[in-house]
Specification:
The protein is α/β, with parallel strands linked by helices. Helix content is 45%, strand content 16%. The protein contains eleven helices and eight strands.
Length: 260
């Protein structure tokens, strides 16, 4: 693992493989780069792959501060510049999808495309109410148990035990301030502004959990493509990695325009 320091905050990441376009993988709340292990192993064969630990998560520093989607996107932009990652495909799960969409709007010169996995973009009322209820439970003294239970419920019993163990281990690394502040920022985030500002090709992989209003998203981001991941839940990239990797491979192939 590597580490760069931005304004006194250490940001950890893995950087493996070779080949363009590079992929930058951005995890969900209370996860870290290891949640993308199947994607790192698959895509490193033909692409440079950078898997980040967002500040407040994993092995990155966890300062006592406000955590915002825009601030995490700025960290990602800084890392891309520092590492010389040119026009990457930014792949984000949950929170990571919001960070990728925000990055595309704030720094249009960085990503060449974005992929979001089951991110909460314009969540329907039931999904938003569930997030608000979860945010309230994180304010209780039992917040760590609530956070672990939230992640545990999203991980199917029958999934690869190694992936399950990594996901649950990452939960224990996030402090309360980072968890509550980050989730609060997602709920307050201006998704419409980011969607309108996104000008690059975009793919949303929908696990059928009702996390997003995709028609509203497509109305603001008309270049959006949607893939349906059948038979999975929120952690689709861990439950059905071959299906998810194949859809991302197809998306990458569609970005290559034949020469005339």
């Amino acid at each position: 693992m590597y580490r760069l320091v931005r304004d006194g905050v250490g940001l950890n990441f893995v950087d493996v493989g070779r080949g363009a376009p590079a992929l930058v993988l951005v995890h969900d709340l209370a996860c870290d780069h290891t949640s993308f292990t199947p994607q790192i192993e698959h895509f490193r064969q033909c692409h440079r792959v950078v898997g980040v630990d967002l500040r407040g998560h994993g092995q990155s520093d966890k300062p006592e501060q406000e955590y915002t989607v825009s601030g995490l996107a700025d960290d990602l932009a800084w890392l891309c510049y520092e590492l010389g990652v040119y026009r990457p495909i930014v792949v984000g799960h949950g929170l990571g999808g919001a960070v990728g969409l925000e990055l595309s709007a704030r720094n249009p010169d960085i990503p060449s495309a974005i992929v979001a996995l089951n991110s909460h973009f314009f969540p329907p009322p039931e999904a938003r109410d569930s997030l608000l209820s979860f945010a309230n439970r994180l304010r209780a003294p039992t917040w760590s148990e609530e956070l672990r239970r939230w992640v545990e419920q999203a991980l199917p019993i029958g999934m690869d035990s190694r992936h399950r163990a990594r996901a649950l281990a990452a939960v224990s690394l996030i402090p309360r301030q980072a968890a509550t502040s980050t989730l609060g920022s997602v709920l307050a985030w201006n998704c419409a502004r980011a969607a309108v500002g996104c000008r690059v090709p975009a793919l949303y992989l929908d696990a059928g959990t009702g996390a997003a209003d995709l028609e509203q998203l497509r109305g603001l981001c008309p270049q959006l493509s949607v893939g349906k991941v059948k038979g999975s839940g929120h952690f689709q990239h861990l439950e059905l990695p071959e299906q998810v990797n194949g859809m991302i491979d197809d998306f990458l192939a569609s970005l290559i325009k034949p020469s005339i």
